[in-house]
Each structure stands twice: as C-alpha cells, then as structure tokens.
Amino acid sequence: MEIHSLNSELPYGSNCYILLSDNEAAVIDPSVNFEAVQHILPPEIKVKYILLTHSHFDHFLCID
Question: Residue 7: what pLDDT?
C-alpha cells in the first residue's frame, strides 16, 4: 500500500490523503483539486472510495 499526502491551497491548510493498493485508490478528505490527485494516480488505478473524516467544509470542498 502507498500513502500520499497533499496539502490544500486553501488558507486552512487541510490535508488530503490518497491510499493506493492494487488497482484501487481511496481519497480521504478531498480538499485539493482532482487534477492534483490525478498526478499521483497511475492511469490504471480507479478511485473506489472517497472518505470524509468529518464535516468541516474545508475537508470536502473538492468532493466533486
């Protein structure tokens, strides 16, 4: 399993974590633009899970 951490560009500094295992990925607290996530994901890996740790707006701003 690989774990990556991205810091959002927002003034709140929320972290987004990406877990990669086999051909699947989980994105935890999607507070960064998906383009930043795509730079980490190999083309064959699909995002299967999006996990929110809590409901503060800066942790799910980029959930789209």
Answer: 83
Tokens of 12: 């709140």
Q: What CA–CA distance (Å, rounded) separates 55 from 22?
A: 29
Give the position of tokens 């795509």: 38
In contact, 30 and 63? CB cutoff 8 Å = yes
β-partners of residue 24 are 21, 46
- Give the residues of the chain that fall short of pLDDT 50: none
Structure pTM?
A: 0.78
For residues 46 and 64, give the distance between their C-alpha atoms in angstroms, rounded to a whole number. 15
Q: How many residues does the chain have?
A: 64
What is residue 64's three-state secondary structure?
A: coil
Q: What percent of the chain has pLDDT over 90?
A: 25
Q: What is the largest CA-CA distance in the chain?
A: 34
